[in-house]
Design a protein that fits this description.
It contains eight helices and no strands. With about 210 residues, the protein is mainly alpha-helical.
């Protein structure tokens, strides 16, 4: 069973790595005739929103990977339903590059709302993924002991909180896209701290 867990984690790590790599693909200078240093600097400044969106999404995927890795430390064995739930979570991860490219292109324009709405909608779907893997782990008794059960229940509750939060952000982005984009960025500081806590709990459960 440990062998199966290692295969699952290796597969997940590969998916996260691909998602991180895809984020950089849309960052490129516009096709134009650059003949001077000034024109090059102007072109680079023009893609600053794309670079900022890339950095945000890279951090999002990185923190998600860290939290996912720490969550897996609390799981003793997988099950069929857990694998499907985990697959749904990975689906939301690999979809992130698309709204990221939209943010980079439209965030500081009059058409920013759809990009910010879609970005937060993907994060809300990712929260559903966390809820599913937490509930399937508990329902199928896959956890490494009672302490792990308690931590995974907490993970599931935070998943519900994240779903409500990002769903609300998606709605509010209709009127306040820049404000919501900034707020969304700040929320990932919380998830980083939460991930560190999960890691500490997981290390206590390891033999």
């Amino acid at each position: 069973m440990k062998h199966l867990n290692s295969r699952l984690e290796a597969f997940c790590d590969g998916v996260f790595a691909i998602a991180m790599t895809l984020l950089i693909i849309d960052i490129k200078l516009p096709e134009s005739d650059i003949q001077t240093t000034g024109q090059l600097w102007h072109a680079i400044l023009g893609i600053t929103p794309s670079i900022a969106s890339f950095l945000l999404s890279f951090i999002v995927v990185l923190i998600t990977w860290i939290n996912h890795h720490n969550h897996m430390q609390l799981i003793g064995k997988p099950s069929g339903s857990f694998l499907y739930a985990n697959g749904f979570l990975l689906l939301t991860v690999v979809f992130i590059p698309f709204p990221t490219s939209l943010l980079g292109e439209f965030l500081f324009t009059d058409h920013a709302s759809p990009a910010v709405i879609l970005y937060n909608a993907v994060l809300a779907l990712q929260a559903i993924g966390w809820i599913l893997i937490s509930r399937t782990a508990i329902r199928n008794q896959l956890c490494n002991g009672e302490k792990a059960v308690g931590q995974i229940r907490l993970n599931g509750r935070f998943g519900v909180f994240a779903f409500a939060l990002y769903s609300l952000c998606a709605v509010l982005a209709t009127w306040f896209p820049l404000l919501i984009a900034a707020f969304t960025t700040i929320t990932w500081i919380f998830w980083l701290i939460f991930g560190i806590r999960i890691k500490q709990e997981g290390e206590q459960l390891l033999p």
